[in-house]
Amino acid sequence: MKNNIIDIKSPQCSIIIRCYNEEQHIGRLLSGIMQQTVNNVEIIIVDSGSTDATLSIASRYPTRVVYIDPKEFSFGRALNVGCKAATGKYIVNASAHVYPVYHDWLERLLAPFSDPGIALVYGKQRGNEITKFSEHQIFSKLFPDRANLKSDHPFCNNANSAIRRELWEQMPYNEDLTGLEDLDWAKQVIDKGYYIAYAADAGIIHVHNETFLKIFNRYRREAIALKRINPQEHFNLLDFVHLFTANVTNDYYHAWHKKVLWDQLLSIPLFRLMQFSGTYKGFSEISVVTSRLKQTFYYPNERKHSANLSNDQDSKQSINYSKLLKEETNEPNH
Fold first, then answer.
1. Which terminus of the chain is more exposed, N or C, with fewer CB under 10 A?
2. For the chain, where do the domains classified as CATH 3.90.550.10 start and end?
3. What is the pLDDT averaged over residues 15-26?
4. DSSP H helical segments within 178-236, as ranges?
């Protein structure tokens, strides 16, 4: 296997990957990292109790594994554990169920740091063939094709982002939030005079294969977090009705133009119902986040096993995962 990672004694960046039963995805991500043009990186796996083959697959690659007790898990706490173990100048956060399409993903993601005023960079996300239609629409809206290399808006996403480690040392992630630890951190650095960069050419595929109940839970916990980060925010019944109606109508319009309306007739309103009912529920939550609620958010009972970026980079050669993973399966462990 091509091993690009050659100088982990003084890595340019440390890639933090949070894991829980990601055997269906993590091999693809690690293979993609090994093919990057940036070659002095370290890979840190933060595992929170995987019981499948996640760690066995990770052992085939030059990774370091650190552990977090599932009962102590939050997204911010897992990131802090990984960041504490990191030695790179920059910290790259990547979900275990994403993978880069092109060889220069890391290079493009780190490039905006040439401006010393940039604290955080986040990259484009797109879905794949199993992504729900409405999720494709969300990706397109939140991660447009046009870059914004100096923003004072705190939106970002830790599924595909990078930060300056020296700033994390000053401001660790909030471990008590049920989500949106990335937005909370971005808000803090912006308050200190830094900027956020969006690198549209640093794209990944983000594989969401959630049940509708999981979609509800995702938006519920993010709403709980958002209300805590910005107490002035609200989401009432009128907001629910307005946004549900507007988004379903818009999704139907795009589905009709893409000639997939009949295929998506039920999926679209179900997705949007879970999205906005979860948000409404989260904003109306008044109790503290209990351990039982955290189990619902982070460790659902059933396990789902899951595997094209927009055509804006078709001129570039994409990573051939089919060939790569086949070759690596036949090689001995590292």
1. C
2. 13-209+307-329
3. 96
4. 181-191, 212-229
